[in-house]
């Protein structure tokens, strides 16, 4: 979820409580679009305020983490240091429910006179910016310069007058009123949730859906339901009442920050409680800054690894597509060889009944002694029966040799496809750069990437995932094929239990039994982990094979992660691992 006006309101309230009265002690610009302000608060403590105007990930929150700064400070940072260093924050405001926070700062200028300036933080997606203005609303500078050639709505340049652009006719929800609300909803022909956030500032689609849920309305219904159904007016008033109660929460600062998780990954966050989600998928926070820091840290990690793995993904995808095309062609050629047995039978029957064929005949009807049915054998009238038989035997021999060669080739190509799909799954699982390094090494060894120089195989610090079941048994999950082999054939003992998705690329999962009998819930936990860390992640039900490790074998010459087993049990399981505790790798 992007920063909406309600999230900004929650942040502004927290910043007012924490920072107003404090003095700006340090100003740093760790990234091109980022500021890090260190503020000495009135209680003698120290707070860091991290602000980002990044087009793809704008945010503002308090953090305990310091970030390294460049050796030479950028010009915007130097300007802020000149004007705001040691300045006192006298107010933090948000105009309406706009996605804007304003830091009002008073400071002494070079002449010793008291001056007031504002640092305006606009968190508007690709239009995000940090703008520094004086008391007359004249722009002193901004972290991004926007000329008239870039935007026809507003220039953001030194010397220009600052104003908030009004590009849409949205109403201020803080001034919510029944008659205007009803008019706005009835005038739009679109889904109800969309009508909400397109009519009022500061609402995100997520909050709009939550409002509909609280009012007992399907947010995807058309706004026509308010005028074309018997209880339309009643439904509209109920929606208004839910909206009014939510805005009262915002006005009074009654925030309940929470992150929504699905299968252990953060998918949404909100400054207010989201009743449309089950309680077991929600993690609550006392501070909106703590929520934002954790949410963006997790999202940043996933985004960063996705970016760093893009080259590896492209290599794997290209090789996979090439092998799939080759495999499809080979299967088609295999289909053509299915005629070989027919030609062999024609040849045998001609050797047996060929004396019945008249010279120059184009066919011969003969009894197929394999099926006791009459069949018609096509003949070349220019050849004798024995010569026709030889021709069919030659065709049979050629197709038989083709079949034998293709059988071996298709098996090899299918193994290569399975191997590449398992690497794709490993890339989806990877969370750290060390995880990617191990996958890259596998691609080098497999011949898909050329090793640079004469360097030897690197040492890796990436370790398997480590979980503990609800009954206290330790469960380990391989992140890639090398770790799968390590877990199964070096780490696990014979009586430990091994889990894997049936016929689908995925991680090897080992449960350390320590000689004990595993309870059913531990089997289920391990199976869920095997389903989640596989290509089947997200499916409602996945079939899992499981057996004692002693039944799992590594075939001679098998690719990394490839095993065989002939004695196993199976179960169908979901991919929800939210109740399984993950431990830090030791």
Give a description of the structure:
By secondary structure, this protein is α+β, with helices and mostly antiparallel strands. The chain contains 14 helices and 21 strands. It has helices spanning 5-19, 75-84, 178-187, 192-199, 205-214, 225-228, 232-252, 288-308, 310-336, 340-353, 385-429, 433-445, 481-491, 520-532, and strands at residues 23-28, 34-40, 46-52, 59-63, 88-93, 100-108, 114-122, 129-133, 139-142, 258-262, 265-270, 282-284, 363-368, 373-378, 465-468, 474-477, 497-501, 509-511, 542-548, 569-573, 581-583. The protein has a 7-stranded antiparallel sheet, sandwiched between helices. A hairpin with a 4-residue loop joins strand 13 and strand 14. The longest helix has 45 residues, at 385-429. It is elongated and about 120 Å long. The two termini are 34 Å apart.
Task: Describe what is shown at a glance.
By secondary structure, the chain is α+β, with helices and mostly antiparallel strands. The chain contains 14 helices and 21 strands.
């Amino acid at each position: 979820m992007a920063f909406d006006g309600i999230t900004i309101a929650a942040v502004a309230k927290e910043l007012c409580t924490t920072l107003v009265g404090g003095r700006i002690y340090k100003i740093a610009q760790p990234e091109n679009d980022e500021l890090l302000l260190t503020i000495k608060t009135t209680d003698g403590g120290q707070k860091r305020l991290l602000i980002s105007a990044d087009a793809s990930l704008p945010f503002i929150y308090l953090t305990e983490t310091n970030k390294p700064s460049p050796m030479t400070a950028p010009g915007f940072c130097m300007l802020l240091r000149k004007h705001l260093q040691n300045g006192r924050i006298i107010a933090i405001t948000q105009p309406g429910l706009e996605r804007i926070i304003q830091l009002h700062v008073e400071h002494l200028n070079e002449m010793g006179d008291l001056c007031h300036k504002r640092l305006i933080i606009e968190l508007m997606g690709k239009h995000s910016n940090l703008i520094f203005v004086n008391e007359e609303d004249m722009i002193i500078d901004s972290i991004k310069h926007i000329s008239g050639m870039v935007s026809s709505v507003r220039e953001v340049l030194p010397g220009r007058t600052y104003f908030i652009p009004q590009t849409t006719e949205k109403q201020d929800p803080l001034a919510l009123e029944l008659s205007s609300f009803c008019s706005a909803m009835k005038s739009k022909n679109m889904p109800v949730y969309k009508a909400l956030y397109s009519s009022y500032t500061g609402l995100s689609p997520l909050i709009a859906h939550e409002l509909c849920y609280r009012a007992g309305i399907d947010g995807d219904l058309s706004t026509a339901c308010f005028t074309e159904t018997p209880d339309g007016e009643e439904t509209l008033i109920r929606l208004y009442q839910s909206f009014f109660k939510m805005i009262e929460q915002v006005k009074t600062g009654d925030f309940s920050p929470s992150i929504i998780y699905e299968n252990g990954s953060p998918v949404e966050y909100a400054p207010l409680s989201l009743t449309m989600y089950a309680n077991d998928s929600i993690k609550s926070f006392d501070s909106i800054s703590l929520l934002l820091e954790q949410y963006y840290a997790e999202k940043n990690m996933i985004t960063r690894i996705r970016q760093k793995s893009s080259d590896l993904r492209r290599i794997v995808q290209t090789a996979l597509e090439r092998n799939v095309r080759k495999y499809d062609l080979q299967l088609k050629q295999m289909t053509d060889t299915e005629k070989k047995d027919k030609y062999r039978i024609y040849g045998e029957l001609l050797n047996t009944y060929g004396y019945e064929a008249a010279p120059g005949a184009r066919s011969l009807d003969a009894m197929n002694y394999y099926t006791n049915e009459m069949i018609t054998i096509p003949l070349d009238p220019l050849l004798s029966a024995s010569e026709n038989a030889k021709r069919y035997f030659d065709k049979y021999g050629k197709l038989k040799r083709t079949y034998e060669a293709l059988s071996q080739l298709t098996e090899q190509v299918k193994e290569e496809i399975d191997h590449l799909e398992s690497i794709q799954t490993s890339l989806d699982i990877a969370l750290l750069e060390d995880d990617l390094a191990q996958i890259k090494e596998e691609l080098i060894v497999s011949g898909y990437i050329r090793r640079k120089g004469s360097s030897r195989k690197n040492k890796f610090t990436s370790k398997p995932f480590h979980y503990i079941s609800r009954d206290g048994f330790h469960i380990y999950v391989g992140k890639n094929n090398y770790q799968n082999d390590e877990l199964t054939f070096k780490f696990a003992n014979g009586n430990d239990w091994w889990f894997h998705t049936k016929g689908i690329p995925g991680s090897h999962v080992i449960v350390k039994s320590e000689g004990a009998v595993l309870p059913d819930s531990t089997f289920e936990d391990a199976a869920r982990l095997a389903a989640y860390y596989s290509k089947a992640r997200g499916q409602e039900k996945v079939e899992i094979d499981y057996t004692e490790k002693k039944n799992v074998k590594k075939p001679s010459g098998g690719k990394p992660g490839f095993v065989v087993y002939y004695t196993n049990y199976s179960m169908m399981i979901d991919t929800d691992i939210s109740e399984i505790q993950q431990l830090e790798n030791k």
